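Support request, please re-run this one:
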Amino acid sequence: MQDTSPNIQDLSDRSREVFRRVVEAYLETGAPVGSRSLTRQMSQKVSAATIRNTMQDLEYLGLLGAPHISAGRMPTEAGLRMFVDGLLEVSAVGGEERELLEGAAGDQSELPALLDRVGSALSGLTRGASLVLAPKHEAPIRHVEFLSLAPDRALVVLVFADGHVENRLFTPPPGQTPASLREAANFVSAIAEGRGLSELRTVMSREIKARRQEIDSLAASLVETGLASWAVAEGEPDRLIVRGRGNLLSEDAASEADLERIRLLFDDLERKRDIASFLELAEGGEGVRIFIGSENKLFSLSGSSLVVSPYMNADRKIIGAVGIIGPTRLNYGRIVPIVDYTAQLVGRLLAGRA
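Re-run finished. Output below.
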């Protein structure tokens, strides 16, 4: 199907200026923009009637919309996409902003704490909610153990060859016993040593099928449940660090509908298991990517924007991502370079730790 959406080059100089000023005013105020207010801003003297006609043309093209018949115009998702791709002017990251981010990242603490501070700093600078996808630990596994905490709660302990230890909570299958826990742990440990988590998942799936008749069915179920609690393909909730939710929920200018949409957005985030899709959003190449409204594939909810950038290790391999999420009315010109700088900063820090 051929793309019939308008191009910024297809607009006349006047239409382009009216469009740009409507979008910039909307991003600043969040309110529809009327023709009369634009007459004082245009580079050449133009009547309000002429501006109204131009805005109607832009509305016909699908770039502007009107919430009410008598109201001014505001950009549609297609309009915001055209603005971001063709007219967005990106500012430089200020010295104070750099110092704040570098100060948050300058401590030689453990990686989770470091990324948490970076996320908090990013949220504070942008007044949005920050997302940080931490790199998964890929060192070979030395030992696996399952521990029962309650009838409906268990703990898997992963000991890696480099000394790193991870504890993950999961829900075991009904009726698990100490014997089935030990049997499951022995089964996993026998094939886990020397393998990373990604490889282990593939091997375990194959082994479980091949040896289904050799092990107790309850232990097999426990193995599968425990595996799902840490495998990348099933999501790793503790890899996604979210900071600054209150920045969105307490937005003074937000309407009741906006606040409800934001609450739904975060409910969607908290329910989402497969956060590997967040990293996939950033894997289209280096640099910042912007997802507006329904383009945002991470969440089922439209009406939000995600500005995300991948970060890389010393081998230039994408291993994580940082981003800002919020309403479509973001200050893209300021947020894009901040997200980009944060991703580069995290990449340099991880490369220095290698």
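Residues 141-234 form a domain with the Enolase-like; domain 1 fold (CATH 3.30.390.10). Confidence is low (pLDDT under 50) at residues 228-237.
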